[in-house]
Specification:
By secondary structure, this protein is mainly alpha-helical. α12 crosses α13, α18 runs parallel beside α20 and α22 runs antiparallel to α23. It is globular, with a radius of gyration of 24 Å.
Length: 460
């Protein structure tokens, strides 16, 4: 007998049932714990690292300068030069999401990718958003939050998106040289950029109510001056890292953040601050609250968040005990625990339900997500895409989902809505949806009705 908890395992903790998933789950909690113990997914070697993309980008910019292209030509040239790589990144990401049986871990990857949001509509970050998920998030998704935090903040996607590559300490050697060179002209000077430091404190760690001040923002910003990416001269053919510490741009000296003094230590000073932020109680509460909201409900029980935050602090920021505390809590399996699917959830779960892999390149899939309001890696805000039902349940959004349900049904070669519904819900399919599927004029219409049904819209 398929229990209600089995459905939650597949649909709320995972990315949606694939054919046969419900029969394979067995004990729901054990199924989820086992995924945390499984080896990390290794992306295919055909997807290059960020250092490779940097070299390619520098070659492109040099050629553009030599050709003296205008901005319109540059945008078109960028798409032509790198479009195939970006399609390859997205294609692998969505094929992985549709085909994996480790979809609890895959959902965690997507959670962290949205928590550390980078928007690819900023051209300087466009090539690196998908690689950041592969290189910085996937390897650390079941490790320690501090390692995940540092890997993300030192990735070129984040350093470029939040302008830290342009941040120069006020008294750094580079700033002093710029002042000397610009005394007799109007040449602009680089300065301290607080964007990354502010988002680290407000979004990535403590939260907006985490007790930091503007002085803390500025001190952290100074500590991470010099965190940048390699210049062309730094990237030989064998270069594998896309992070570079520029000592001449770093604001040397001791810093004080949240009342703690940090001695001058170059690049290590910023890393030490991040490790302390990762273990701050406000960080535990803020991030565990987001995790509980993503997996359980828009207003998760305080007892659940407290349990997860306690596991965070007791484990020194290890993420696996935090996930385990959530999985093992009765609050996570309550009858009223459910989440409205985001557009990405909706589309991925429909593809998983039918076993339909996205095309290569996945143009139709990405176009559909764009029309639904959630184009991949394009939240247009460092806060990421919204995770509450109110943001995705307006009249226009509902109408677009109905249209998308038909488009998704049209991609299935041999639709059988009753069989697919049984694979999704087993004996728990509600009577109204079952009756609508039986009365559909055609199997394809029945599948569209299934995808548009309230039962399919929720991760419950």
């Amino acid at each position: 007998m398929i229990r209600r908890e089995t459905l939650s395992t597949a649909h709320r903790f995972g990315l949606g049932a694939r054919p046969g998933t419900l029969d394979r789950i067995g004990d729901p909690r054990r199924w989820l714990h086992a995924q945390l113990d499984a080896p990390a997914v290794v992306p295919p070697p055909a997807l290059p690292g960020s250092a490779y993309y940097l070299r390619q980008e520098y070659d492109y910019l040099r050629a553009r300068r030599e050709a003296r292209s205008n901005d319109g030509d540059a945008a078109m040239g960028f798409r032509e030069r790198f479009g195939r790589s970006q399609w390859a990144e997205l294609g692998w990401r969505y094929r992985q999401a549709v085909a994996t049986e480790q979809d609890f871990v895959e959902r965690l990857v997507r959670f962290w990718s949205n928590h550390f949001a980078v928007s690819a509509d900023k051209r300087t970050a466009a090539l690196y958003a998908a690689p950041m998920e592969r290189e910085a998030i996937r390897p650390h998704v079941a490790g320690h939050f501090a390692d995940l935090l540092i890997a993300v903040e030192q990735h070129p996607a984040m350093l470029r998106y939040l302008d830290n590559v342009r941040s120069v300490g006020e008294q750094s050697r580079l700033a002093q040289r710029q002042r000397r060179n610009s005394e007799d002209d109007d040449m602009p000077r680089s300065g301290l950029n607080e964007n990354l430091a502010r988002e680290i404190l407000e979004l990535h760690t403590l939260g907006v109510d985490g007790g930091y001040t503007q002085d803390d923002v500025r001190e952290l910003a100074r500590a991470i001056t010099g965190w940048s990416v390699p210049l062309p001269r730094d990237l030989d053919a064998g270069a594998t890292t896309a992070f570079r510490f520029r000592a001449n741009a770093h604001e040397a000296g001791a810093r004080r953040v949240l009342g703690q003094r940090y001695a001058a230590a170059g690049e290590a000073q910023g890393r030490t601050i991040l490790r302390d932020l990762a273990l701050h109680p406000a960080t535990a509460r803020h991030v565990c609250g987001k995790l509980a909201r993503h997996f359980v409900s828009d207003a998760p029980p305080r007892t659940l968040v407290d349990r997860m935050a306690d596991a965070w602090m007791r484990s020194g920021g290890a993420l696996r005990p935090v996930y385990a505390a959530m999985i093992d809590s009765p609050d996570a399996w309550a009858a009223d625990a459910r989440k409205l699917k985001t557009p990405d959830d909706f589309v991925v779960s429909a593809l998983r339900a039918t076993g339909t892999l996205p095309g290569d390149p996945p143009r139709a899939l990405i176009g559909l997500l764009g029309r639904l309001g959630q184009p991949p890696f394009t939240p247009r805000s460092p806060a990421g895409f919204a995770d509450e039902a109110a943001e995705w349940s307006g009249a226009d959004a509902v109408w677009k989902r109905i249209q998308a349900a038909q488009a998704l049904a049209d991609t299935v070669a041999d639709p059988d809505p009753l069989r697919i519904a049984d694979g999704l819900f087993g004996p728990h399919l509600d009577a109204d949806t079952a009756q609508a599927l039986r009365r559909a004029e055609s199997p394809r219409e029945g599948l569209a009705l299934l995808f548009a049904s309230p039962a399919f819209q929720w991760r419950s």
